[in-house]
């Protein structure tokens, strides 16, 4: 009769320790390797930007950077690199229309961005120059 409670306690502790070891193996943090500094996209310091340009930087990073920043070994750029030279070559009006209306490969942002936000993005793009180190 004393053996049954002992067996129940052993089973309880065995399942408890097994459950805890299963939880700890599931909660392991993923290994993150350090990115070499040479692979980081050079963007201008936020301290060097005006308030409008900084707002444009935030929007650009959130909405545009996934396709329009220089490619890294881990991914290929989908769209053209956007910087001040592109804006100067195409003009503010053409860039504004492209952002608002999109193209076959790019969504139009007319329903997501206000005209003021588009101007902030264009102002920020004018600060970028990917031909030189930032």
Describe the structure in your own words.
The protein has 134 residues and is mainly alpha-helical. It has a domain at 37-125: Orthogonal Bundle (Cytochrome Bc1 Complex, Chain D, domain 2). Helices cover 52% and strands 0% of the residues. The chain is built from 5 helices and no strands. The radius of gyration is 26 Å and the shape is elongated. It starts with a helix and ends in a 9-residue tail after the last helix.
List keywords for this structure.
134 residues; single chain; mainly alpha; elongated; Cytochrome Bc1 Complex, Chain D, domain 2
Briefly characterize the structure.
The protein is mainly α and 134 residues long. The chain has helices at residues 3-26, 51-68, 84-90, 92-101, 115-125.
Q: Measured on Cα atoms, how large is the radius of gyration?
A: 26 Å
CATH fold-level label of the domain at 37-125: Cytochrome Bc1 Complex, Chain D, domain 2
Q: For the residues shown, what is the average pLDDT?
A: 79
Order of helices and strands: HHHHH
Shape-level CATH architecture of the domain at 37-125:
Orthogonal Bundle
DSSP strand content:
under 5%
Ends apart, CA distance between termini: 79 Å
Going by helix content, strand content and strand pairing, the class is mainly alpha
Total DSSP E strands: 0
- What global shape is seen? elongated
Biggest sheet architecture: none
Helical amount: 40-55%
Uncertain ranges: none
CATH first level of the domain at 37-125: which class? Mainly Alpha
Q: Could you state the CATH homologous superfamily of the domain at 37-125?
A: Cytochrome c-like domain
Query: How many helical stretches?
Result: 5
């Amino acid at each position: 009769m004393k053996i049954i409670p002992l067996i129940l306690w052993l089973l309880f502790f065995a399942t408890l320790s097994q459950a805890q070891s299963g939880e700890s193996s599931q909660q392991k943090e993923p290994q993150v390797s350090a990115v070499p500094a040479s692979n980081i996209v050079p963007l201008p310091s936020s301290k060097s930007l005006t308030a409008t340009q900084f707002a444009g930087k935030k929007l650009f990073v959130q909405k545009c950077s996934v396709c329009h920043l220089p490619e890294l070994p881990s991914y290929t750029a989908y769209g053209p690199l956007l910087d001040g030279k592109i804006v100067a070559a195409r003009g503010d009006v053409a860039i504004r229309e492209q952002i608002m209306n999109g193209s076959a490969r790019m969504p139009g942002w007319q329903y997501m961005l206000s005209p003021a936000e588009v101007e902030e993005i264009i102002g920020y793009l004018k600060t970028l120059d990917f031909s030189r180190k930032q």
